[in-house]
Write a structure and sequence with these properties.
Elements lengths: L1 H29 L19 E17 L5 E6 L6 E2 L4 E5 L2 H33 L8 H34 L1 E3 L4 E6 L6 E2 L6 E16 H4 L8 E5 L7 E2 L1 E11 L14 E8 L13 E7 L9
Helix pairs in contact: 2-3
């Protein structure tokens, strides 16, 4: 009788557990699937026939990459990314301890050389004033004069060493070549840096431009007078009219790859610079990619 009671109790709880599992599973399977992420429609050329290219937004007169004159440890940074800078502003300073110690020694050498010069001049003036040739010979006078001249040259040499070291110290301070904005800073205080790698980037953001890469196969069809437009990458809703600025006539290896399957990594491109007015309802940023279309009224449609 006891066994029967226990069996019924266990069966009851198993039934309850099964019912709960059924309710939970039903709830899970009835949940709505997550909404599909909408993919923006890619841009299309507004021209009947066009040269399709890719472009990179950059500061006017190009983004200026700045490095250091020699390998060393960063001692000081004056600005952070986004700060306005002016031409000549100090941006970065390398470790100057060794040169500053050397400069102190050289300044002391200047003082020693100047003291030696004063002594040599004093001795020369004394022997020069002696009128009795029996007391001081002409050779003594000449010797004292030459010693004074040598001492004078040593002072000049010591001062030249100070000037040289001062210039080397100034060389360790990296300054901005233009008025603009600090766009990039790939370095921290105390970090060891190499002269082979650009660490800073400065650009003038008052006027933006687009550097367009035209495939070398299409370069011969390019006409600077043809209308051109740009769209932010994969955004067909923002069309930006472009104004031709200049051609950089040397065809270079393509650096910014779009990632399309038909793109060749060994492609060389003709780079064309266009200026544009930034859209009022859409912000453009330096380094942003753009799809560019240049009107090309030819029988065939040429693309990258």
């Amino acid at each position: 009788m006891l066994c029967m009671s226990i069996f019924k109790t266990i069966s009851f709880y198993l039934a309850i557990l099964g019912l709960l599992l059924a309710v939970i599973l039903t709830h899970l399977f009835q949940q709505e699937p997550p909404e599909a992420i909408s993919i923006k429609e890619p841009s299309r050329s507004p021209f009947l026939q066009a040269i399709a290219s890719s472009g990179i937004v950059e500061a006017s007169d190009k983004n200026i990459e700045i490095g250091v004159p020699e390998d060393g440890i960063v001692e000081k940074l004056w600005f952070k990314v986004g700060d306005p800078v002016h031409r000549g502003d100090a941006l970065l300073q390398l470790d100057t301890r060794a040169l500053r110690a050397k400069l102190e020694v050289q300044r002391a050498n200047v003082e020693v050389a100047e003291a030696t010069l004063r002594k040599a001049i004093d001795q020369f003036e004394r022997v020069k004033k002696v009128k009795d040739p029996r007391a001081v010979s002409k050779e003594d006078v000449t010797t004292r004069e030459n010693e004074a001249r040598v001492a004078e040259m040593r002072v000049k040499a010591a001062k030249a060493e100070v000037e040289e070291t001062t210039e080397l110290l100034n060389r360790l301070i990296v300054r901005s070549p233009i008025d603009g904005i600090l766009l990039k800073q790939d370095v921290r205080d105390g970090e060891f840096v190499s002269r082979n790698k650009p660490l800073l980037m400065v650009g003038n953001l008052k006027n933006l431009q687009i550097r367009v890469d035209i495939d070398e196969q299409n370069a011969g069809y390019f006409d600077k007078n043809s209308p051109a437009v740009a769209y932010p990458k994969n955004n067909a809703n923002v069309m930006i009219p472009l104004k031709f600025v200049r051609i950089e006539p040397y065809v270079v290896p393509k650096k910014s790859l779009t990632g399309t399957s038909e793109e060749r990594v060994d492609t060389r491109v003709l780079q064309v610079i266009y200026s544009f007015e930034e859209p009022k309802d859409y912000n453009m940023y330096v380094g942003q990619q753009a799809d560019v279309y240049i009107d090309n009224p030819l029988p065939e449609h040429h693309e990258d």
